Amino acid sequence: MALLENVSGREYDKFVNTTAGAAVRVSTVAGGDTSANVVSASGTATISTTETVLVNKQTLNGRTGSWFVYNADTGAGSQAIDVRMYSAYASGSGDWAAPASTATDWDVVGSTQTIAAGATKHIPFNNVYRYVALTASTSAATSVGVTADLYAL
Question: Which of 12, 43, 70, 93 has the fewest CB atoms nearer than 10 Å to its CB?
């Protein structure tokens, strides 16, 4: 029985009754090990006015995902950082290299995200990319202890 059925689509039963109470209905398929389909990477760096790599070339091959960036700024500067996502498509693309002008296979994606000292930012992406990298820089001083994580399915 459908919970919702209308012009925009159909949502099937998500719940099943068990002796322990209601549970979420889950289905599996043969060879359904999804861990091989997950891309995860992380990096920690001290960020200065020079663009610095947080997470270098990661192969996505069309997966969508999210970046999670934490600007700990454990130094005394309370310095915000500017984060940029880059993508590359060419199969022979090397790692992203600073300055951005020398990374000829790489193009900046979206707008620069500013993250205040002590703040965390979630940066989702739904477009299809072959390779991605994440960089950061500051406008003046140094930000210590910046951490970035990538999760893509």
Answer: 12
